């Protein structure tokens, strides 16, 4: 008996060690994916928007990315239903149409994300990739402020200090850029337009993330269903924006005007990159996400030097250094005893923001906890009553046994 228990304990220990090794590898895979997604999307958008020749319509690219994302999620849901088309259709009707109130909740964040995706194109088209990457970290500041105001979350002293450093670092980079604008691209780019676009994008990102968390707390819907719901509104709102901004030009030249192989790479990165990040991010804790964001800034800066002849001087180095340090400081776990309703979440670029709210979060060791089991109230009460009855019977048996033992 004892040998069996010992061997079982050894097997459980070996399985736990093996699972720990797998999770450790997945953490490093997550790091690579997050860095690649954060850096490659910005650099590729900047590249296709600065190439000479006919430019594609950014509004059509936003709509196309939503279409691809919805089709991918529908395919995944179909596979989950074992390719049963009828069951998939009934499931989607129930989740999207019959539960229309739940679907309508996503109209506001979908509007904000559509606006944000369009503004990112405007910002990256008018700002150097490295400057955009640094400035876009203001979304951490806006997310933190909206979390405090709307969700009554508390921040540690280190996090408040990191937010101040973040703002100071971004301000220094803006001073550097104002005094060192790229003269060669001044005819096609407007630095102030890019700066306004990235600031509004940061505000919308912070509000959308917090609003998402507020209205969908405790939601049981899968990430794929939520993404279909978001995509339906995203496509409709994106088409409305396309008609408003580029309607006559699209009608004259076509929806796919200016699409090259590189443009398709950008669209696929925007559509599938966010889904991929959403899948791997559950294996990444906040420290890893902060490190990935910081490292992606370095990658974007180095690649901008080679691709776009970006000039790095002392002011930019100091500002970017402050931002990198602030991002890492903000992602550090709170000291024991500090009160907070939940851990801080670092928003990201590339469409992963809206998905992360539906995925299980990893703990400090990078291990994803099992999903909570929701037991219906009647069953829970019946189970508690049975436990109480068993406890009473056990106490009666103990009393009887005690009485027998006291007899001579």
Q: Give the radius of gyration.
A: 26 Å
Helix content: over 70%
Amount of beta strand: under 5%
Series of H and E elements: HHHHHHHHHHHHHHH
Strand element count: 0
Task: Summarize the main sheet.
Answer: none
Mean pLDDT: 78
Q: Given the structure, what is the number of helices?
A: 15
Taking the alpha carbons of the first and last residues, their distance comes to: 35 Å
Form type: globular
Determine the structural class based on helices, strands and strand pairing.
Answer: mainly alpha
Structural write-up:
- The protein is built from 15 helices and no strands.
- α1 (2-50) packs antiparallel against α11 (261-280), α5 (107-126) packs antiparallel against α9 (191-215) and α8 runs antiparallel to α13.
- The chain is globular.
- The protein is mostly helical and 408 residues long.
State the main characteristics:
mainly alpha; 15 helices
Give a short synopsis of this structure:
This protein is mostly helical and about 400 residues long.
Write the layout of secondary structure elements.
Elements: H1 2-50, H2 58-80, H3 85-98, H4 100-104, H5 107-126, H6 129-135, H7 138-150, H8 157-179, H9 191-215, H10 223-253, H11 261-280, H12 286-308, H13 314-331, H14 353-356, H15 377-406
Helix pairs in contact: 1-11, 1-12, 2-10, 2-11, 5-9, 5-10, 6-12, 7-9, 8-13, 12-13
């Amino acid at each position: 008996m004892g040998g069996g228990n010992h061997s079982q304990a050894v097997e459980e220990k070996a399985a736990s060690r093996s699972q720990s090794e797998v999770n450790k590898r997945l953490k490093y895979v997550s790091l690579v994916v997050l860095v690649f997604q954060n850096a490659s999307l910005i650099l590729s958008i900047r590249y296709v928007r600065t190439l000479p020749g006919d430019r594609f319509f950014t509004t059509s690219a936003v709509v196309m990315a939503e279409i691809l994302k919805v089709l991918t999620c529908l395919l995944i849901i179909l596979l989950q239903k074992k390719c049963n088309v009828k069951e998939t259709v009934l499931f989607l009707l129930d989740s999207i149409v019959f539960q229309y109130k739940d679907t309508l909740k996503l109209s506001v964040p979908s509007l904000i994300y559509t606006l944000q995706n369009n503004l990112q194109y405007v910002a990256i088209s008018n700002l150097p990739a490295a400057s955009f990457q640094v400035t876009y970290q203001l979304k951490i500041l806006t997310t933190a402020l909206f979390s405090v105001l709307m969700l009554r979350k508390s921040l540690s002293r280190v996090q408040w200090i990191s937010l101040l450093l973040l703002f100071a670092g971004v301000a220094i980079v803006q001073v550097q850029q104002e005094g060192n604008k790229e003269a060669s691209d001044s005819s096609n780019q407007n630095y102030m337009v890019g700066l306004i676009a990235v600031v509004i994008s940061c505000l919308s990102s912070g509000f959308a993330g917090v609003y998402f968390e507020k209205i969908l707390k405790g939601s049981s819907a899968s990430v794929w269903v939520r993404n279909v719901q978001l995509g339906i509104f995203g496509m409709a709102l994106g088409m409305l924006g396309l008609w408003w901004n580029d309607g006559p030009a699209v009608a004259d030249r076509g929806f796919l005007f200016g699409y090259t192989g590189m443009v398709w790479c950008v669209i696929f990165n925007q559509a599938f990159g966010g889904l991929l990040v959403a899948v791997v991010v559950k294996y990444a804790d906040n420290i890893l996400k902060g490190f990935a964001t910081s490292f992606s800034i370095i990658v974007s800066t180095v690649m901008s030097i080679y691709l776009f002849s970006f000039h790095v001087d002392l002011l930019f180095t100091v500002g970017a250094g402050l931002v990198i340090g602030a991002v890492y400081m903000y992602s550090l776990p709170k000291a024991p005893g500090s009160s907070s309703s939940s851990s801080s979440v670092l928003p990201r670029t590339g469409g992963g923001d809206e998905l992360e709210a539906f995925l299980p979060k990893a703990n400090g060791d990078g291990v994803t906890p099992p999903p909570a089991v929701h037991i219906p109230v009647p069953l829970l009460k019946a189970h508690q009553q049975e436990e109480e009855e068993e406890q009473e019977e056990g106490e009666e048996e103990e009393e009887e046994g005690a009485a027998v033992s006291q007899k001579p």
